[in-house]
Amino acid sequence: MLGNRGVLVDDERRIVRAWQVRRWIACRLEFRGLRRELMRPRRWTELFFLDEAAAFAAGHRPCAACRYPNYKHFKTLWLACHGGAGKADDIDARLHADRLLDRATKRTYRRRLADLPDGAYVVIEGTCGLVWGERFFAWSDAGYVSWRPRPANALVDVLTPRAVVAVLEAGYLPEIHPSAATAKRSA
User: Fold this and answer.
1) 157-176 burial string, b = 16+ CB within 10 Å, else e?
2) Which of 48, 71, 100, 137 is geometrically suited to a Cys-Cys bond with 144, CB 3.0 to 4.6 A?
3) SS3 state at 95
4) Which helix (H) or strand (E) holds 81?
5) What is the distance between the alpha carbons of residues 58 and 18, in angstroms, rounded to a whole number?
6) Which residue(s) pair with 62 in the sheet?
7) For residues 124 and 121, what is the distance between their CA atoms, to the nearest angstrom?
8) Chain centroid, CA 161 distance in Å
């Protein structure tokens, strides 16, 4: 997945901010054959995510252009969960409030692991990863490297914003990296 948070680099391509706009979107890596120069000054800066679940954990939503069917499904479930006018700006405003405590600090919250839906990202014993079925998949930048059974009664720090968790609970299944299918059970 390709993420967009606006222009994040200066003219020397140094990262100068974590985000510029409230519209944090998750896009396809390929769309209509478009090519981009990475980290081009004065243009939106590319972010890369392992998969849609990881992008959701960071506070992004599906792009309404390159991922329109996903966006439409997400928006339908969003409206069922949260009401409102359903405009992208309304969704982005709610997500923005859910993902950050201040300009640079991610908002997390505690919840019982057994109550979380598939696709949520959590931290268990210092390891960040994906909740899927009865498993917890350990994240790495190369893919999901291992899994272990989901501990039923554990309280965990949830990385996926509350508003997105509600959409997952309503039935949205995010795209998951294929490495989840080949990850080995941890000892």
Assistant:
1) ebbbbebbbbbbbbebebbb
2) 137
3) helix
4) helix 68-82
5) 11
6) 26
7) 10
8) 9
Q: What is the pLDDT of residue 30?
A: 74
Which residue shows structure tokens 């999901």? 144
Closest CA to 143 of 187, 177, 186: 177
State residue 45's pLDDT score: 84
How confident is the model over 18-73, as pLDDT tens digits?
Answer: 889 889 999 987 767 767 677 778 888 888 999 999 999 999 999 999 999 999 99
Which residue in the block uniquely carries the two structure tokens 């928006």?
75
* Domain boundary assignment for the chain: 2-185
Which amino acid, one-letter code, is at 46?
E
The rounded distance, in Å, linking the Cα atoms of 39 and 174 is 27
What's the start-to-end Cα distance of the chain, in Å?
30
Q: Report how far residue 97's alpha carbon sits from residue 158's, in angstroms, rounded to the nearest whole number.
A: 15
Give the pLDDT score at 31. 67
Residue 93: closest CA among 106, 82, 105: 82
Distance, CA of 88 to CA of 182 (rounded, Å)? 36
Specify the pTM: 0.92
Rounded Cα gap, residues 95 and 40, in angstroms: 26
